[in-house]
Prior knowledge:
single chain, 7-stranded antiparallel sheet
Amino acid sequence: MMTTQFSWTKQWYPISPLSYLDTCNPTPVTLLGKKLVIWRDKNQKWIVMNDVCPHKLARLSMGSITEDGTMMCRHHGWCFNGDGKCTFIPMLTGSEAEVTACDSLRSRITTYPTQVIQGLLWVWPDDTSTAFEDCNSKQPATIPECELDISSTPWHMTEVPVSYTVSVESTFDPSHAEFLHQGIGLFSPQAAVPMQDFAAVGEISAEGGFTLKHQGYNLFNKDMEAMRRFTPPSCNTTIYRYPNGKTNLFQLYFVPTQPGFCRYIGKFISDGNSVKRNFLLEIMPKDLQTGLQHLSAYKLSDQDLSVMHSQEVNQLSLDKKWQRAYFMPSPADVGIITFRKWLDEFAGGRPSWEGCVEGSVKELNDEQLYDRWHRHTKHCPSCRNSVIFIEKIRMFCKICSLIFMLLTLVSIFIGFPLKLALISTILGVLSFFFSYLSDDIRQLFFSSVPKRGLPLLKLYESKEGL
């Protein structure tokens, strides 16, 4: 094996799908512990720079993008161009002092190389003087050329309160699906099949990562051939090929944001999926369609979160290296072992954080662990717009309910026909019902924990008699 060390900063990271970025306002993001801000300048170029104004250290992401395409700090109005150079200081306007201050290295903000490929914004988070030259030596780990239409499905992004290490480890552990995701689709312990021929193939290296091959893990995919390719630091490209010629591709990225948190970006592509048309869904606004589709994915991810968080808490409380903390006698554990070995041998055992260190993991309660706002909704324009739309519907229904109830009272006191009072009463009740329903749907974008009744998250169906 190669013995060269892996540099965490001299790499391309997919920081966000373009569809999640605001072209008119700055977007804050954290990568390897660095606080960064993303914005687009007058040349339509995406800029990533340190999220700190050199004046009094305010966060630039609180500011705005001016008409001339510069970033303006909210605190005192200092402006910066896409190269990080200060271009305007309101309290020194037109003076020689302003020129001197703007030319000073102390007023300059560090910027990072970026590029856009396959609908993702990529950033090279190295702040050395040669970063813009070094970044040309590598290419981002994009979706490989294949027979599938890689643009057929959109990117999905979440940021979870689980570490990078446990997140990547889980993605190379496919056999957990039948047990952890019981009740979703065809996943069931009864369908589990012991994995065979799970092994690393070829060289394992610092920059090249590793490739794994294995067969199926349930009754429905036992004959398929799978390839899992880890391209450091974030990418897992998984391809399933079935005897009938069907191919599935999973492109997943795990971006280390800060200790205890990881950003997931991914998409699923298949040549065998037939899209079922839903008339009710199709007549809804596009953002609401997308938002409701995103809601359907939470149960599976909640199940993942529940076990990964508990694993992380237990693992750190033992204060043992993974080799001693884990007992992995099964061939199905090869993926976990291979990733952990790569991490230990080439990458220092964990991401290299800036300005923070990994410590003990605080056990989160259900409200914190299953929070959907910080996990996804605040990042996703479609889900945010869905919340706004549903809130408008809710308010409209409340107003309608009040109007119809007043109409009922007026009809009774004035002596209008009973039929009119009955109709207005029914419409009032229906309006109240839809107001109540829309409020519950709106809440689904904020938390997996039920709003009404006991605040207990139901991850699995209870057995009868229990």
